[in-house]
Amino acid sequence: MKPYIEVEKDRIDSHKYLNKNTVHRSSLIVPRFDRIKTSITFLNHFLIKRNYKDVVMKITAVDKLGLYLDDLSMDINEPKVYNIQLDEIFDNVKIKNYLIDFYTSKNLFIPYPAVMVNHSGQNFFSVVHAFNRVLNDVFEDDKVNTINAPEAAIDVYSDDTYETFVNFATGQQEINDKLKFEYTNSKENIEKNININLPRFSHKSFLVSDIFEKKLNGGILKILQPKQKMFYGRMFGGVMNNKTKSFTANHSYYCSNHSKEYYETDLCYRTYPYFENFNNELIIYPIMSPGEISFKIKIINDNEVFYSSEKLLISPSGKEIKFDIDDIIKKNGLKNVSAFTLIGNTKDNKLPTRVNHQIIYGNLDRKNKIRGSVNTSLINKKMFTPSGKNKIIWGQVICDNNFVSRLGFVFMDPDGLEDQIKIDIYNEKGFVKNFKLDLYPNKSIQLSSDQIKNKKDQNYDEKSNFYWYLAKSSRQDLTAFSFHYNKISGDGSGEHSF
Description:
Layout: H1 4-16, E1 25-31, E2 37-43, H2 45-48, E3 55-62, E4 68-76, E5 81-85, H3 86-90, E6 97-103, E7 116-121, E8 124-129, E9 132-134, H4 138-144, E10 151-152, E11 162-169, E12 175-184, E13 189-198, E14 203-207, H5 208-212, E15 220-224, E16 231-233, E17 236-241, E18 247-251, E19 253-254, E20 262-263, E21 267-273, E22 279-284, E23 291-301, E24 304-307, E25 311-315, E26 321-324, H6 325-331, E27 339-345, E28 351-352, E29 356-362, E30 372-377, E31 391-398, E32 403-411, E33 419-427, E34 430-439, E35 445-448, H7 449-452, E36 466-473, E37 478-486, E38 492-496
């Protein structure tokens, strides 16, 4: 884990000095699973955002021993969505991992590419942005791997139908070590050490109920990975249906319980889209720097401000807190709601630098645990905000007739002025259309897949199910969330914008 203050410093430097700490290789690793389709998609933001025309992507396929099997290089030079069906290109059941690298002579700024990793099967489609990569040099290794923090932000569900799983990945070297699992709730604390012996560029999945030898629901799961040289690895984790083997997964997030890193302020916040007639929830795990934070929900109800009752989070502890946004709106008779704001307060003017949590979207069937659970963090006034530039965000939306999909835009800060945002839509043929819509604080702009993919559009392609948006605003706090679920199974997934 890199200290967040260092992250902020690097952001400031990158805006101030465009040729300082330049990045010319951006990479990710994509795990392959048996009987699951594996693909990556991305919008050519290199060209559309930065006008870079000399980007090359190289894909290397390796087997279960981390040995080379095959490779393919491709020029990335068209203003469109690239849909790379990895298993179809290489067609080799021996493949365990795909190593993917982007190269250019220009400055990429960020060593992680804005790529979506997609795993799909019968009646499900799991999406997550790039989460594992081989580091560029020893100096990046010095920065990124300064602190070996446990991974957390993993929703725990374990019963006869659903099971939480986590997937551990290795980098350039084989691992013969231990994974340290810790589960905590209000009644118990359990620790388990699991021996791990894996070759380079490999991965292995674990079921939570197998690790702890019992069914667990709720609570806080932390996993300490062995430190790996020249490798940045998050845990790939989520929820699986025991019967159908469908799943949804996202990446884990740092547990900062042992890092005393704070801003000198007492307020943090973030606004999210509210999707009516869908599932809207928040889970906040006590994995921040030590302290107490009081949380509440703010909603604008027909121009009147509503605040929910407050909930206190003590970090570290064995108790997470939850907000059922649908229940809050229903019980209090709130109308015409399209957004809500999570607000956190401290009493000692010490706010943890990372106040992260899960935003959960899905269908109305609360029994179905395969849904979009996305880790995100609150913002505050002490954070660096670039000035004099437009904000550009982009991301993926699944537009498939077998799925229900939604996309929502908000300003993270509930204060400030409205702005007209421009939303460009792309598919595998190129530019499709754009929207110019007014966005107001405390409200959201929402689009369905039918609005994004329409037969009347230019470059309409019935076979193209991967659509990407690119949105621009003069406000620096523009953000977006998308989610989808299968019409038959109800199994879903989701992500935030890049």
